[in-house]
Design a protein that fits this description.
- This protein is an alpha/beta fold and about 350 residues long.
- The protein has two domains: about 240 residues, 3-Layer(aba) Sandwich (Rossmann fold), CATH 3.40.50; about 90 residues, 2-Layer Sandwich (Alpha-Beta Plaits), CATH 3.30.70.
- Helix content is about 40%, strand content about 30%.
- The strands form three sheets. The protein has a six-stranded mixed sheet with strand order 6-7-8-3-9-10, with helices on both faces.
- α4 crosses α5.
- The N and C termini lie far apart (about 50 Å).
- Bound molecules: adenosine-5'-triphosphate (ATP).
- Adenosine-5'-triphosphate binds next to β2 and α1.
- The site of adenosine-5'-triphosphate has 13 residues, from β2 and α1.
- This is Methionine ABC transporter ATP-binding protein.
């Protein structure tokens, strides 16, 4: 478990003080993928660099597996950092070293015997899907392959946690998905805790279990990914969720369309988890004397299950409409009436 309490970082420049991280407290559980999302300047990079003290905190504490990072001496910190892997947006590889030698580097520094290094490096090369590329130099690799080297290097000393600093931001969408899949498989195979920062909601949706939203150095919202997606609270979170759900963008257009039709009830439904697989619309059409018109719908998978949004129009007698809505609520679907008949 990682416990971060009242973490603060103030940069003092000649002209001004910048409060980059402002009283952040978070608990990150063993084996989870925890995402921190925010717009540029929110304080994400500073936050993640504070965890392994690449930046010195102004105040606050960070405990990893009950060891207080903030109180460690330089020597203790050097040893602890071997157990905190990190990957970067621009990979930070050693360009004059081959794939093999890049991955071997942290093991050499840790004083591991050559024969053990060989076994470990070959195992890691296999794990990240780079078999056959051992003797290539970084310049001979694609962006996705470079990040695979970065991941293998970060895993060399069997870390307790992997920090990912915008690890997919320099990659195209398809390669991003491949790297995200690799991170999920590593998380599952090794039960490795992963903390990542990103400005892309897609990354959070695809691989994170929990998420914190940062704004002006503060965490403005935090929770299970599914909950945050379905019920975003802060304005910033709502904007991020809209980034991903085209339906939310189109809600204004839908509203115009809805207002044209004065005899129908218009409803927004949120299906969460196993409910996304339920044939609720055909159920209500059979069970009640209502006409159902499907206006728009989408379904999005997350690590913790799927969620779906559906806009429907219902026509029928008022008491039947009330019963239909009650039936859908009882089925565990969230119902929001956008326009009454
Ligand atoms: N070394 C520094 N000295 C002074 N101010 C800094 C320093 N590093 C970051 N800042 C400031 O701290 C704030 C947070 O920056 P940070 O890079 O952590 O945000 P971010 O969310 O990672 O943004 P980006 O995605 O653009 O990197 C910004 O106002 C930034 O200008």
């Amino acid at each position: 478990m990682i416990q971060i309490k009242n973490l603060k970082k103030i940069y003092q420049t000649k002209k001004q003080k910048v409060q980059a991280v402002d009283d952040v407290s978070l608990t990150i559980n063993q084996g989870e993928i925890f995402g921190v999302i925010g717009y540029s300047g929110a304080g994400k990079s500073t936050f993640i660099r504070l965890i392994n003290r690449l930046e010195e905190p102004t105040s606050g504490s960070i405990e990893i597996h009950e060891k207080e990072i903030t109180k460690m001496s330089a020597n203790e910190l050097r040893l602890k950092r071997q157990k905190i892997g990190m990957i970067f947006q621009h990979f930070n590889l050693l360009w004059s070293r081959t794939v093999y030698d890049n991955i071997a580097f942290p093991l050499e520094i840790a004083g591991v015997a050559k024969s053990e290094i060989k076994e470990k490096v070959m195992e890691l090369i296999h794990l990240v899907g780079l078999s056959g590329k051992e003797n290539n130099y970084p310049s001979q690799l694609s962006g996705g392959q470079k990040q695979r080297v970065g991941i293998a290097r970060a895993l060399a000393n069997d870390p307790e946690v992997l920090l990912c600093d915008e690890a997919t931001s320099a990659l195209d969408p398809e390669t991003t998905d491949d790297i995200l899949d690799l991170l999920v498989s590593i998380n599952q195979k090794l039960n490795l805790t992963i903390i990542l920062i990103t400005h892309e909601m897609h990354v959070i949706q695809k691989i994170c279990h929990r998420v914190a939203v940062m704004e002006n150095g503060k965490v403005v919202e935090e929770g299970d990914v599914l909950d945050v997606f379905v019920r975003p609270q802060s304005k910033t979170t709502k904007r991020f969720v809209q980034q991903l759900n085209p339906l939310e963008h189109q809600q204004d257009k839908l509203a115009e369309f809805i207002n044209d039709r004065d005899d129908s009830e218009v409803i927004k439904l949120h299906f969460i988890g196993k409910n996304t697989k339920r044939a609720l619309i055909s159920e209500i059409a059979k069970k009640f004397d209502v006409e159902v018109n499907i206006l728009q719908g989408s379904i999005s998978p997350t690590q913790e299950g799927s969620y779906g949004t559906l806009f429907i129009e219902l026509n029928g007698a008022n008491d039947v409409l009330t019963k239909t809505i009650e039936y859908m609520k009882q089925a565990g679907v969230e119902v929001e009436v956008l326009k009454h008949a």
